[in-house]
Amino acid sequence: MKKSQRIINRYLSLSQAARLVGIKRRTLQKRIQDGDILTFEGMVSLEELLKAYPQTEIEDNTMIEHSQHIKHAAYNKLLRDGNSVPDTDVLSTRVTALCQELSETRSVAKKYVEIVEQLAQRLAKIKTSEPEFDALKLWLKQATEAQRSDAQASAQLLANDTLLRLMTAHVRILPSGHDFFVEGTSSLLEAGLRAGLALNYACSNGNCGKCKARLISGDIKQTQTHDFMLSDEQKATGEFLMCCNAAISDVVLETVEASNTRDIPEQQISAKVKKIEFRSNVALLHLKTPRTKRLRFFAGQYVTLGDGQTIPSTELSISSCPCDDMNLHFQIPGIEHNAFAQHVFQSLKPGDAIDIVGPRGEFVLDENSVRSLVFIAWHTGFAPIKSLIEHAMALDDAEHIHLFWITAKPSDRYMDNLCRAWQDALDNFHYHTIDADLLSDDTETHQPVLDTICDTLEHLADYDFYIAGRETLISSCANMAQQRGVPNTQLIGDTIKHE
Ligand code: FES
After folding, report:
1. Model pTM?
2. Which atom of ligand 1 is nearest to the CA of 207?
3. Which CATH superfamily, name and number, covers 83-257?
4. CA of 228 to the centre of ligand 1 (A)
5. Which of 189, 266, 303, 326 is the most buried (most CB within 10 A)?
6. Alpha-carbon torsion 24, 28, 31, 32, what sign?
7. Of the candidates 197, 183, 189, 198, which has an alpha carbon nearest to the alpha carbon of residue 67?
8. Given pLDDT bands bounded at 50, 70 and 90, which one contains residue 332?
């Protein structure tokens, strides 16, 4: 594409375009697949975007960061800890780049206007009675007038786009093609993890060198010194540490990402108890890892907690999101015959050390799927489901997310307020509660659950199903799905670890 063309008609990645008009990337992808929106080399022009979403410019600017705001507000994971505004160096570099682009755009636009005016004058001087020639003159006149009336809408969208580019940098990762935005002074690693990417790293602190990446294009800035030494050769080929650098401009990087659970090694970490809350006979255990030794995991996985000596050991699903790798959450039902549960309910206190070994398990999101998501949790099966939902929110990609939380009685839904907050804040999140006593494992008791799910979802085959509960519930859901034509590959179950 010629530079003048790029300047006049800015092209956006799908993530940038979706964010600008406040929709899901998947929704935009669908419209592209349906032929509603044309793309060029996988990019969308502002002009095409405006044609597809003509109302966009009318909305106020809060829509620009719509998905970010509601996502953060919803699960109270405000990672905007005062560093959401870029520092002055970054801002001045971006303002300079934008000024340069503006002056180039103005100059190119001025030339085009002159050419069009000259063309109109020259056409007016030609004497001919050819009807095609008159049609051409009329078309030029109408197209010029239409362009003027469209200018206001385009200007608003361009202004929104410029503001976004000033406040955030767009990062594209090769070879995966994943992309994300960096806000404020966040490091590239922090921003990538927050966006739900499984980037390679270990210490987050410049010691291990595992977060190495190669800069393909754009500008970065070192924000933190590091002990890990990069050789001169590595530096010469653009290698740098993502945990110690921020993006100044939009960048393209080459780096390693985990593509499946085998890519993440087993880790052993000694964490500290930060807080224990008790709700409806369930303990919500919050652990904090050392800053330099965080747990890398996929949402939905589990770990072993305790050393089996000072603290009885058990396997437990992590209920928090991998995007907040220092703060690990677990949900433990108060079961009398379980030594770990008794220890948590009776002896464990803030400040105590507790060993973590893991992660393990294959109950993870299929990130290649474009289908909407259905999560079904029985009681504390909500733990891995919560992790998956928070990860899906970080990815911000699913068109619809349905959560069915089944408990014997309403008061057993120990995080009901959180689910309601998600529903209030997120347009695409739907929360359904089901009261059913499934403790007996009697499959007859599953029928009201299955009926509610079928009544709620029109075409079951349009969804991926994630079920965390007892084996019998998973089997009942699998039978229901099979009867309604849902392929096995669209259903994954996780048996409750701790009951
Ligand atoms: S994660 Fe260890 S150096 Fe960046």
Report:
1. 0.76
2. 3
3. Beta-grasp domain (3.10.20.30)
4. 8
5. 303
6. negative
7. 183
8. very high
